[in-house]
Amino acid sequence: MSQPQTFPEQKASFFDQPRAVWAVAFACVISFMGIGLVDPILKSIADQLNATPSQVSLLFTSYMAVMGVAMLVTGVVSSRIGAKKTLLSGLALIIVFSALAGMSGSIGAIVAFRAGWGLGNALFIATALSTIVTAARGSTAQAIILFEAALGLGIAAGPLLGGELGTISWRAPFLGVATLMAIALLATTFLLPSTPPAGRRTSLLDPFRALRYPGLLTVALTALFYNMGFFTLLAFTPFPLDMTARQVGLIFFGWGLLLATTSVWVAPLLQRRIGSIPTVLASLTLFAVDLAAMAIWTNDKTVLVVGVIVAGAFLGINNTVITETVMGAAPVERPVASAAYSFVRFSGGAVAPYAAGKLGENVSVHAPFWMGAGTVGIAVVILAVGAKHLRGEELPASHDVAEAELIAAADAT
What we know:
The chain has helices at 19-36, 42-48, 53-81, 83-102, 107-135, 140-166, 172-191, 206-210, 214-236, 238-241, 245-274, 276-296, 301-327, 334-362, 367-386, 398-412. The chain is an all-alpha fold. The longest helix is centred in the middle third of the chain and has 30 residues, at 245-274. The protein starts with 18 loop residues before the first helix and ends with a helix.
């Protein structure tokens, strides 16, 4: 059994990382652009293809549904062909399906190609986090912050890119991502060392077995309902805003920029001061209040703009801390825990956009935001009740323990 490569944590700098880590991080930024890329062009697609808000929201639903189901097989695939081949396969699928979406002529075709895009993203995202954590210098917490920073930058840049390219055509953002992903594919191919398949092949049943642990199940269910609020904000807000693609892109750029900033700097500070569970409970409670305010004053565009941007702060804090919590929520391998957690949480991201669109069409423009506030409130209750299974995650020192366990598990498999 080969010995894992370790680095002295005391001397490790957050920015002093191997080129392979930066290559994967860059690919993560481009990959996460896909989440917010379509926000600025949702209304343009609806207008030009004669689609309703709920039909257009299927761009999120198909993407998230396929990604959630595919997360169950990412560990199986990676343990058989290795992390690098899994990453490259995911990138290749994203390139193909984003390009096809940009060349489509109907809403049904775009929805279908977004599903293929989700498959590629699943293969890439789950493996990328494990790759960064394993290869990065420093602690597990630093590696996760690097991953979350890439997530935040991608989410911020996605709407900005979508808004700018959307002024040319609604097709341009899709083709732009395909081009950037091709660059990421080349960088990953040449900079990331070959990774052989793991010694122990994981099973499709492993993620479901992992959910038997109360800690992991608590975090997964919390994320499921929280994601319903998250994707309600993402998928429905552009319709009551009723602005140009560039304007919507700039608004969500501000949201993503705040998300990235708080995930890197504010989340670790709060975690050290008050602990993981109180930090997540506070951020989710404030997010629910924010959505409730947007539900009350939906017709006031100023409130919507401020509500969207401010939400980025709560989401950034929550994303970083809850991702770290997952790593120690169950005594299973990191890829297995990630697959189980992602399968459950992405279900919320799949259901919410379509449900929000239908509520907006058939009930009122306020109803989707009330749904979002309510589901995030349910997430708060679930975490508060199940917190007893996660008490160990409140200790900052647990990062060192988690790092040692993760390295040992990676070496053993």
